[in-house]
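Researcher: Quick sanity check before group meeting.
Model: Go ahead. Protein one:
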Amino acid sequence: MLSYVIRRVLLMIPTLFFVAFITFVLAHSAPGSPFDKNQNRPLPEATIERLNRLYGIDQPIQNQFVLYLNNLVHLDLGSSLVKDRTVADIIGSEFPVSAQLGLQALFIALAIALPLGIVSALKQNTGIDYASLLFATIGTTIPAFVIAIFAIFLFGVNLRWFPFIGWGNGCGPLPSCDLKRMAMPTVILSLGAMAFLTRITRASMLEAIRQDYVRTARSKGLREQVVIVGHVVKNAMIPVATIIGPATAGLITGSFIIEWMFNVPGLGREFVLSINRRDYPLIMGVYMLYATLIVIANLTVDIVYGWIDPRIKLGR
């Protein structure tokens, strides 16, 4: 196990390097610079040239990339070209909101998807099963921003049940405690993961139910509750556990549109703004943070998978 973890950690280095290279090239391939006249406050041409020279934007892209890698090795993400703040400061202040939004969405997805998938498999070809399949199909095919538009129009504008702008005021250790304001973005963000987890849980349960060890347990006279909980559910959760890690990283890192639509002051909304402003250091900083989270989540899932099922030999 230790040797496998060491190999995976070492493999993270070229993976993150490749992500940094692709992101850097794509971000700097867009025409113009953050100081162009197309911005809200036009600057004189001479001022733009001085700013480009000051931040090294006038240099060849390979020189800029080497300089960025050198700073990255020293854990220096640079400073925003638009805001008078460092990238690390922006991430440190706004990432907790995105993390809270993603973790809340994951909790709701798991709390609903796992029981729904289990019941759907146990009640196969019944009304409950068909309803869960319909929900899973809708949740995986309709984009979150489409559902968000209808939710805002119905629950926010017409019924006025929930506010749909902002994230609330801070209180205590949490970035926010305004539950009504957090409700719609959290639930809508959870729908995609909820639908996917429901389908995976149902499929895993149906596969486990048909295994020989389940028939053997029933033939021994074990109660049905013992067979389902002790044998079927336990083994069916192994495939589900493998996708919880990537799902967690995906919910935390994939809330760009939801944060933008609901004006949630998280890192996703700031990332969208940084793209519009061509704020290269912030774009790179967010990308590298999210890439690192996804790589770590995949490694964690592989380790947990081997721990749950000893039959799996990691690294072979």
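Researcher: Fine. The other one?
Model: Protein two, sequence then structure:
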Amino acid sequence: MPAIKPISELRNYNTVLREVTADTPVFLTKNGHGRFAIVDIRAYERLHTELELMSALAEGEESVRKRGWVSMDSAIKKLGV
């Protein structure tokens, strides 16, 4: 279950930071609305890597739509394998 706290809880930031784990971010609200998320650095790096991968896959998908597929023989020849 996500931890949701008002931003005023940051007065005791050590308490808030202890609740952050790789699987559980802490969401901070301001005036009752979501405003910030505090995430574990490993979770952030994993998310960032996943977004880069998804972006590369989307580029490849777009390339296939525009240029079509490359045959296995052609790919092997281009890569010099």
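Researcher: One line on it for the slide.
Model: The chain has one domain: 1-64.
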